[in-house]
Write a structure and sequence with these properties.
Strand content: under 5%
Number of domains: 1
Number of strands: 0
Distance between the termini: 44 Å
Shape: globular
Order of helices and strands: HHHHHHHHHHHHH
């Protein structure tokens, strides 16, 4: 730990605080408010027209998750940003790990704000299309957020073309979309397992294609159901556009925050060892997310 710079020590404290926030009276009040809204979402899922929208969203999400080309970033453009900022030795992902976290954060800048703005515009347009718009809106939202995650990963030196990095990205989405403490714990357990394995330099044993496909399908199904429930309010006439844009921006904010903190923690773990990772829950024992929505 003594090797960490002052800036990195402060950043690590911020990351740990983000993982275990102090839930005050306002946070407790939100839990009380959200419970009846969640039950209402369960009821609305049974209304005519919602089933096909969910199925369409899930099929679209599965396609998006499988096609890395849809959400891949151009690492060379990011390496060039580092070189333009004075880091002339950055030509590959591994070169970024030689920098101080403060130098990387400076190059990252206001990346999250860019994606929140795009999500707001896209969601407002889809909100006016009602239930029918969900089958297009949800895969589009996930594509946007996978690209955001991919950019954060590249800035902190991780290559999302690798299988383990794609699993990590999908579990960031699982965490951001989690409606309950239990589902958040499941996603965090996966994230901690992958983070620790990578930091320990454990040789990644490529998952069989059939296993990897099943995991992606599980995550896509859970995301489709969760996001449909959360976005049903945008199908209400007049307010639909406002709710649609607002939710997309809110969800993207959660994704970007999670990516920002988690990739910074992984960057520090790569430099200083896995012990810097804050273990808020016990790491998962396998790579299946076990989300309740996917297993129902």
């Amino acid at each position: 730990m003594s090797k960490l710079s002052k800036y990195e020590k402060h950043a690590l404290k911020e990351i740990h605080n983000w993982k275990e926030p102090d839930i005050g009276w306002f946070g407790q009040a939100l839990k009380v408010i959200n419970q009846p809204l969640d039950l209402a979402g369960d009821y609305l899922l049974k209304t005519p027209g919602v089933g096909p929208a969910i199925q369409g969203a899930i099929e679209g999400l599965t396609s998006v998750c499988h096609d890395a080309a849809q959400w891949s970033v151009r690492p060379e453009a990011i390496f060039e940003e580092f070189r333009d900022d004075g880091h002339s030795t950055v030509n590959a992902h591994k070169d970024i790990h030689d920098l101080d976290l403060e130098q990387i954060d400076k190059v990252v800048g206001f990346l999250g704000a860019k994606y929140k703005g795009i999500a707001l515009v896209e969601g407002a347009g889809a909100g006016m299309a009602g239930i029918a718009g969900l089958a297009v809106d949800i895969p589009t939202l996930i594509t946007l957020n996978l690209r955001a995650i991919g950019e954060y990963a590249a800035y902190y030196g991780f290559d999302t073309t690798r299988q383990e990095e794609r699993l990590f990205a999908f579990n960031v989405l699982g965490l951001a979309s989690s409606p309950t403490d239990a589902s958040k714990a499941l996603a965090m357990a996966q994230l901690i397992k992958i983070s620790q394995d990578a930091a320990k330099k454990v040789a990644w044993k490529e998952l069989e294609k059939s296993v990897f496909v099943k995991i992606i399908q599980e995550i896509a199904k859970a995301l489709g159901i969760r996001l449909t429930k959360a976005k049903l309010a945008q199908t209400i006439p007049v307010v639909g556009a406002a709710v649609g844009g607002g939710f997309n921006a809110y969800f993207t904010m959660r994704v970007c925050d999670a990516a920002f903190y988690l990739y910074r923690e992984r960057f520090l773990a790569q430099k200083y060892g896995p012990e810097v990772i804050e273990v808020t829950v016990k790491p998962a024992t396998d790579y299946h997310p076990h989300f309740a929505e996917a297993e129902a």
